[in-house]
Amino acid sequence: MWILTLFLSIVSIITVFSFIPVLVNTEGGSPIKYMFKHIFYLILGLFAMYQIHRIDPKYFIKLSKFGFYLAIALLIFTFFFGVRVNDAGRWLKIPFLPFTFQTSDFAKVALVLYLSNILAVKKSKIKDFKEGFWPAMGPVLLTVVLILRDNFSTAAMLFVICIAIMFLAGALMKHILAVVGVIIVAFSLLITIELNTDAGIFPRAHTWWNRMFSAQRNDSDNIAKTNPQVANAKKAIASAPLLGKGPGNGELKYYIAEGYADFYFALFIEEFGPILGMLIIMVYLILFFRMIRIALKTEKLTESYLVIGLGMIFMFQAIVNMGVCTGIFPVTGQNMPLLGMGGSSMVMTCVSLGIIQSISRKYNPVEEESETNNIKTNDNELEVA
Predict the structure, then answer these.
(1) Which pLDDT score is estimated for 78?
(2) The model's pTM
(3) 153 exposure class (CB count in 10 Å sphere: 0-12, 13-18, 19+)
């Protein structure tokens, strides 16, 4: 996992530097400025990953409730005082620094950690709606509702992942379907009201509707008018030679505003080709496979649920980004883990990997045996001396 993480990190430096011409034109500055900003977040994330992987997982579990409450507080604060970009208030300005932080990135990790602990504690009662199911579902709904208004894709993805974890923990399907049914009815009603009255319940409702409607119809002309980035992303993939056009030689990156993030995979295919694109997919699959193996090796349910949950967040983000670029999914704001440019996303992905590595290290006897052998060797040397 360390080798693959470092491999993706190096690839991200090369590609982000190539994919940011539109960002340079709109925000000003030079490509070097954004490259070093990306490298700063990357180093910060890898440093956090290394430090976290050395901590005993029991401390994460003990702090899960505090982390969840902190995430809720940050989401509420962002709701009222967040920095708005494209009608979405997802970010908090970090005082005295030229950086912003997307609170939903922290909330995803905090919720999965808290939910994993609850499900382990309530294991014997999970089939009881009042005693087991609702105490786990309540925090999920609260977090999703706070994220939903400005970030539908993250809220939907997080809800699906939490439902999957609860199902694996033994929750009854009738309880899950009942809650999902109520949510669909309530959300449909609120969306209908918003689309007809502009009540301000969901300011981005028209954007969501247009994106989903265009994707469902697969109307090329309509997509080109309402969201030309999607059309350009498809062109980038379709025009790519087998080995790509070469680093820095892509043409569509000058017309895709979010090519370094939301449409990363399309520009990667254009410049590096479908063969290396398949290699990136294989790297993600291998990382996810390693996470599943770690989850199966744990002795505590909390750790198993946590690794599976964090692994699904990691993999879902990659799948959604690739799906958006190829036109399978409507346009969302999901970044490519460890590859796309994004400060809080990069750091929290590394934090998640650090937690998973911490759990892996706990059940990996190699390091402990090595330390034991060193102690024995030193003792023998002392006896000889």
Answers:
(1) 85
(2) 0.86
(3) buried
